[in-house]
Design brief:
The protein is an alpha+beta fold. The protein has 8 helices and 13 strands. Helix content is about 30%, strand content about 25%.
């Protein structure tokens, strides 16, 4: 499930009177199951979320739920049930889309979810000041651009792990007291035995690629399947 329901380009000609409300709850993310993360988020994410590698994704992600359409980190009143909120959620309702045929440079279009509950015509902070973004909106766009740059580094780390032959397909079974066990499939995980069995040459190659922090954060984070919101889902 995606948070974004109706993505359109953000344009001052069409959205001059738009205002952005502060986030009072996270109901807009209540059906989100996975949130991609980048290398800068590893330390904080590993403390509170399972870090996984979705089978067909180029980036690692934090797993937010084990029941389809149910984000375990969004409480009954819409509150976020962890101290760290992934950047993927913090930059909502904005998104960057790369222009067709462009690489990893700055050629992006800023998009917005036109159906987001965070928009208003009356309350909140203006999005535009004339033709320019206001500081409030610009902070979200700056976060998006920073994430886009870090995604390049993070994708290279995932590719290095794959090249080392460390990924295995994994179906995770999560015990839920008072409920049937939940199963989550479509995930890849680092094979810890294969990682520990790497030759010195292969290990050093992985170290030089910068991928070791991702491997360690991923392995440590799996304790979060047994604790926190996922463990209570």
């Amino acid at each position: 499930m995606s948070m974004y329901k109706n993505l359109v380009p953000l344009r001052h000609t069409e959205h001059a009177g738009l205002r952005l409300l502060p986030v009072s709850n996270y109901d807009f993310a209540s059906e989100l199951m996975l949130a991609p993360i980048v290398v800068d988020e590893l330390a904080e994410a590993a403390r509170e979320y399972p870090i996984v590698f979705p089978r067909d994704a180029a980036l690692p992600a934090v797993l937010l739920g084990v029941q389809r359409g149910r984000n375990a980190y969004v409480g009954d009143n819409g509150q976020w049930l962890a101290s760290y909120v992934p950047a993927h959620i913090r930059h909502y309702p904005f998104m960057l889309t790369r222009l067709p045929g462009k690489g990893d440079g700055q050629d992006h279009v800023v998009m917005m979810d036109a159906d987001s509950p965070l928009w208003s015509k009356i309350e909140g902070e203006p999005v535009f000041d004339g033709e320019s973004l206001t500081p409030v909106a610009q902070r979200s766009v700056d976060l998006l651009r920073a994430m886009s740059r870090r995604q390049v580094t993070t994708r290279a780390m995932v590719q290095a792990i794959a090249a080392a032959g460390l990924f295995v397909e994994r179906t995770v079974r999560v015990k839920r007291p008072g409920h049937p066990d939940a199963r989550v499939s479509g995930l890849r995980a680092v094979d810890e035995k294969a990682f520990n069995a790497l030759s010195d040459e292969a290990f050093n190659a992985l170290r030089k690629s910068g991928a070791l922090p991702l491997v360690y954060a991923h392995l440590l984070s799996w304790a979060n399947f047994r604790q926190g919101p996922i463990g209570r889902a």
